Amino acid sequence: MVSPALGLLLLLLAAAPIPAPASGIGFQLHHRFSDRVRRWAEGRAVPGAWWPDKGTTEYYAALAHHDRALRGRAIAASDLSFADGNATFRLSSLGLYVVVPLLFRSA
User: Fold this and answer.
1) What is the pLDDT of residue 98?
2) pLDDT digits (tens, 9 = 90+) for 24-80
3) Where is the signal peptide (predicted)?
4) Where are the domains of the chain?
5) Which end of the chain has the lower number of beta carbons within 10 A, N or C?
């Protein structure tokens, strides 16, 4: 027969929460000419996927054209720019975190 103290201890151990690694919401950003997006598009045979070689004139011209097209749509109500500096933190069990301050400039 189990003593009452030992039974209580076993009950508490069974009901104790099991520690789990912390998780958070994360996401990755990829531009359309990144290697990962290229592999994704080529693997799915995306029609019209044209991939200029990195570092070429066509590569930078395509990026600039895309930026001008987005700016021309005037989707955002105000300009957005990076503030001075940022901070990167390494948390031992959670990985790297970056804090990037942004400034909103009204038109």
Assistant:
1) 73
2) 667 777 777 788 888 888 888 877 667 788 888 888 888 888 778 877 777 655 666
3) 1-24
4) 30-105
5) N
